[in-house]
Specification:
The protein is an all-alpha fold. The chain has one domain. It contains 7 helices and no strands. It has helices at about 1-30, 35-50, 60-95, 105-130, 135-150, 150-170, 170-200. Helix 2 (about 35-50) crosses helix 3 and helix 6 (about 150-170) runs antiparallel to helix 7. The longest helix has about 40 residues, at about 60-95. The N and C termini lie far apart (about 50 Å). Pfam families: DUF624. InterPro entries: DUF624. This is DUF624 domain-containing protein. Keywords: Membrane, Transmembrane, Transmembrane helix.
C-alpha cells in the first residue's frame, strides 16, 4: 500500500514539475517563440512515458527536446497563426458582406473548418513528438488523422472542451497540472495509432 502511495505521489510531482517547466520555457522564449517548442517538448515527454521510459531526468530531457523542436515548431506556429487569423477575419465578415438568410450556413462552414484546423493543430504536437519526418510531412499526418480516426478525433475534441471548461472554472487546478495532464491524455489517445502507423509506413 505504501509503495502505491509513493508511486502516485511521484507521478503527481512529475506532472506538476512538467507543468512548471512548460511555463518556464514558454517565458524563456518570450511567450510568442516559446509556446510551440515548449509544448512539443512536453508532448515528447509524454511520448516517452507512454513508451515505458518513466524515469527520464525531467529538466535535462525537456531542455533537449525544446532545443530540437525550436525552429520547426515555431515555423508551424507562424503558419497556424495565419490560418486562425484568416478564419477569424472570415467569421467577422459574414455579417457585413452576406445576406442574413445564409448566415447560418456560413457559420456552420466556418465552425467546421475551425474544428478541423484546431484538431490538426492539437494532433501536430503529438505527431512531432513521436516521429522524425520532413517538415511538412508532420502537417500531412496531423491533418489526415482527423479524418482517418474520427472516433479518436471526437475523444480529443471532447477532452479539449472539458479541459477548457476546467481551466475556466477551476483556474488554480489548471495552473498546477493543467497543461501536462492535457498533453498526457492527448498523447495516450494517439499512441497506439502512431505505433501502428510506424510499423506499416516507411519513414520518408
Amino acid at each position: 500500500m505504501t509503495s502505491i502511495v509513493i508511486k502516485v505521489a511521484e507521478r503527481i510531482y512529475a506532472f506538476v514539475a512538467l507543468n512548471v517547466l512548460w511555463c518556464f520555457f514558454v517565458l524563456l522564449g518570450l511567450g510568442v517563440f516559446g509556446f510551440m517548442p515548449a509544448t512539443v517538448a512536453l508532448f515528447r515527454m509524454m511520448r516517452e512515458w507512454n513508451s515505458g521510459k518513466k524515469d527520464l531526468p525531467l529538466m535535462k530531457s525537456f531542455l533537449t527536446f525544446y532545443k530540437e523542436a525550436f525552429i520547426r515548431a515555431n515555423l508551424y506556429g507562424a503558419m497556424f497563426f495565419g490560418v486562425f487569423y484568416i478564419i477569424y477575419v472570415n467569421y467577422q465578415f459574414v455579417s457585413y458582406f452576406y445576406e442574413a438568410s445564409i448566415h447560418f450556413f456560413l457559420y456552420v462552414v466556418i465552425f467546421s473548418i475551425t474544428a478541423v484546423a484546431v484538431m490538426t493543430f492539437v494532433n501536430l504536437f503529438s505527431v512531432m513528438a513521436h516521429f522524425d519526418h520532413r517538415l511538412f510531412h508532420y502537417l500531412k499526418l496531423a491533418f489526415g488523422m482527423v479524418f482517418a480516426h474520427p472516433f479518436k478525433s471526437f475523444l480529443q475534441l471532447f477532452w479539449l472542451i472539458a479541459y477548457a471548461l476546467v481551466a475556466m472554472f477551476y483556474p488554480k487546478a489548471f495552473l498546477l497540472i493543467g497543461v501536462s495532464v492535457f498533453a498526457y491524455v492527448i498523447m495516450s489517445i494517439n499512441f497506439t495509432t502512431f505505433n501502428q502507423y510506424k510499423k506499416n509506413t516507411p519513414v520518408p
